[in-house]
């Protein structure tokens, strides 16, 4: 019974992440924020040259992340490829193609995103990027 409950919870978490990606794809940042715990820790790896890199805490600072992302890049493609769930953690492997507005350069960024859930919301988010590709395109 516990195994079925764990499997069901893991599937719920995967669905939540897929819903977050769908909302992001539609530009519905308020829906993304609703999926996050109020005290969420949001960390994106990357060089200082990439404005959306760094660690943010709380929904208000996550709004700043999305603003910096929108000011910095045009997303040409965003493709989550694998969803791996264990307990309260969902790992997503994917890629994106970004055009940096300041340089016009493209980056193909292969990434891993780790979502950690608490009480049905994302309490912690970690994104691990191809920092070399991002730094080269950021100029």
Main attributes of the structure:
alpha+beta; Nuclear Transport Factor 2, Chain: A; six-stranded mixed sheet; 4 helices; 37% helix
Ordered list of secondary-structure elements with their pairings:
Blueprint: H1 2-25, H2 29-34, E1 36-44, E2 54-57, H3 59-72, E3 73-86, E4 89-100, E5 106-118, E6 121-128, H4 131-138
Parallel strand pairs: 1-6
Antiparallel strand pairs: 1-2, 3-4, 4-5, 5-6
Order of helices and strands: HHEEHEEEEH
Biggest sheet strand order reads: 2-1-6-5-4-3
Helix/strand structural class: alpha+beta
Examine the coordinates and then state which fold CATH places here, giving the name of the CATH topology.
Nuclear Transport Factor 2, Chain: A
Strand composition percent: 35-45%
Low-confidence stretches: none
CATH C-level class is Alpha Beta
**What characteristic shape results from the CA principal axes?**
globular
Q: What's the architecture, going by CATH?
A: Roll
Question: Distance between termini?
Answer: 54 Å
Helix content: 25-40%
Biggest sheet, open or closed, and with what strands and sense?
6 strands, mixed
CA-based gyration radius: 15 Å
Supply the number of helical segments: 4
SS elements, strand count: 6
Estimate nothing, just give the exact number of structural domains: 1
Arithmetic mean of pLDDT: 96
Question: Can you characterise this structure?
Answer:
With 139 residues, this protein is an alpha+beta fold. It contains 4 helices and 6 strands, in the order ααββαββββα. The protein has helices spanning 2-25, 29-34, 59-72, 131-138; strands at residues 36-44, 54-57, 73-86, 89-100, 106-118, 121-128. A 6-stranded mixed β-sheet has the order 2-1-6-5-4-3. A hairpin with a 5-residue loop joins β4 (89-100) and β5 (106-118). The protein starts with a helix and ends with a helix.
């Amino acid at each position: 019974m516990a195994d079925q409950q764990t499997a069901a919870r893991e599937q719920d978490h995967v669905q939540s992440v897929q819903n977050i990606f769908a909302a992001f794809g539609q530009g519905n940042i308020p829906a993304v924020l609703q999926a996050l715990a109020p005290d969420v820790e949001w960390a994106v790896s990357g060089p200082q040259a990439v404005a959306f890199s760094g660690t943010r805490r709380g929904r208000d600072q996550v709004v700043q992340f999305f603003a910096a992302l929108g000011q910095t890049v045009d997303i040409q493609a965003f493709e989550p490829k694998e969803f791996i769930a264990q307990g309260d953690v969902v790992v997503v492997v994917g890629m994106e193609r970004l055009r940096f507005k300041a340089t016009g350069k493209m980056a193909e960024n292969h990434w891993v995103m780790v979502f950690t859930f608490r009480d049905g919301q994302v309490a912690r988010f970690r994104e691990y990027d191809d920092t070399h590709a991002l730094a080269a395109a950021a100029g």
